[in-house]
Amino acid sequence: MKDRIEYIAFILLSYFLRVIGLKLARKFAFFLALLFYNLIPIRKKTVFENLDIAFPEMSFSKKKKIAFQSYYNFCISVVEILLLPYLSKEKVKTLVKTDKVEFLKRKYEEKKGLILISAHFSNWEYIAASVSLQMEIPFNIIVKNQRNRFVNDWLNMARTKWINKVIPLGLSIRNAFNILKNGEILAVVADQRGPEEGLKLKFFGKETSVFTGPAVLSLKTGAPIVFGIPIRLNDFNYIAEIYELDMSNLPDDFNSQVKEICQRMVRFLEEIISKYPEQWLWMHKRWKH
10 Å Cβ neighbour count for 119? Predict the structure, then answer.
């Protein structure tokens, strides 16, 4: 019953946003951010704990600004995602601007498979939907199931409306390997905390667990790793920062290779988050273990 009630509220919000349109919906996101930051401070304590770890020398006033902007960024993403399946295919193609489409196509045409890594950064759903349409090549997206099964089904409907496919996280390892061996594109958001017993690396100076899956898959299949991070501009347009991970000069043994690749991935995330701290999702307990 709880899931159904939540889903009804979810759908009603979606209909309301459709009525007012994308432009006003983004303005509405500002009031949602004020509500959740000031009156319903979900994960606010976690946000400031994370900012203290990442930027220990930053002033509290600056951290407050980043914290609120992070809430605002997330609320913008929520309203945009709620409207995503109602946009035209041509509109979705223009959502994220990049000059690296041909580069990505060349990587795909090497037939080694391609691992596309993104992060919970601005609107991560936009980049998968838009760039795949620009390439005219489907992405196989690893997704974590939502607690509410109705909301989960709706999100997967939105993700797969055009050409993309979804792979539930629990089934991802074997399926991901086969996808890459078939020369296809695997897309994953890989910036959250890894398993407690997994590899731990320093992230913003403090050790935390990391996911090794992309590194392992790359080494076993030969698929290159390419980061695709959407950056939201002040006018609500998006550009994509596309970066191929350097796989040269790796150590000799497999475990050390995995560790080095993961370390390079972490360094890139540190750089992009430091450059646009307000666009990262600080609500996740990244340093829990």
Answer: 22
Element (H, E) at 31: helix 2-34
Across 9-59, where does the E strand assignment appear? none
Set out the domains of the chain in order of their start, with CATH numbers: 2-279 (3.40.1130)
| pTM across the whole model | 0.94
What's the CA gap between 92 and 89, in Å, rounded? 5
- How big, in percent rounded to 5, are the helix, strand and coil portions of the chain? 55, 15, 30
CA 20 to CA 7: how far, in whole Å?
20
Q: At what angle do helices 60-83 and 2-34 cross, to 10 degrees?
A: 130
Cα of 137 vs its chain's centroid, Å: 19
Cβ–Cβ under 8 Å, residues 63 and 51? yes
Name which of 159, 89, 126 is nearest 229 in CA terms. Answer: 126
Query: What are 209-259's pLDDT values in tens digits?
Result: 999 999 999 999 999 999 999 999 999 999 999 999 999 999 999 999 999
